[in-house]
Design goal:
The chain is an alpha/beta fold and about 150 residues long. It has five helices and six strands, in the order E-H-E-H-E-E-H-H-H-E-E.
């Protein structure tokens, strides 16, 4: 038996094949949508997944304004930031953030599920979120993917 066939293949920046995926957020729960999109961005669905390489796909999310939250999360879930000055802690509820920009709500959910390092920042740049069904990535010919079919 040839032992070379048992070599573990480690992906690198040159050998990774990235594709564009289109995800429709219409009627999806925010957390479940974000966790599946984070897996797609990270590349965990691919057989050549390598933890220290950006081997995931580029993901376009449309209809961010139609995402749902269950229970009292619209009022109870808060997003906290700090201005950098003393007493500068500011917070927004999910409803207030959604009112300002529905895409920011989805972006924050996905970013929280990515690694907190340089690789996570690089992976996050592969995400595009749009409030409505129109998007600017028609030239990339994204493949539509249904998250309910992924297991």
């Amino acid at each position: 038996m040839d032992t070379l066939s048992y070599k573990t293949v480690s992906a690198n920046k040159n050998t990774v094949n990235k594709e564009w995926l289109l995800v429709d957020a219409d009627g999806q729960a925010l957390g479940r949508l974000a966790s599946e999109v984070a897996k797609l961005l990270r590349g965990k669905h691919k057989p050549n997944y390598t933890p220290h390489v950006d081997c995931g796909d580029n993901v376009v999310i449309i209809n961010a304004e139609k995402v749902t939250l269950s229970g009292n999360k619209w009022e109870d879930k808060s997003y906290i930031r700090h201005t950098g000055y003393p007493g500068g802690q500011r917070s927004l509820s999910a409803k207030e953030l959604f009112g300002k920009s529905p895409s920011r709500l989805v972006e924050k959910a996905v970013k929280g599920m990515l690694p907190k390092n340089k690789l996570g920042s690089a992976i996050y740049r592969n995400l595009k979120v749009y409030d409505s069904a129109e998007h600017n990535q028609e030239a990339q010919k994204p493949r539509t993917i249904n998250l309910k079919d992924i297991k």
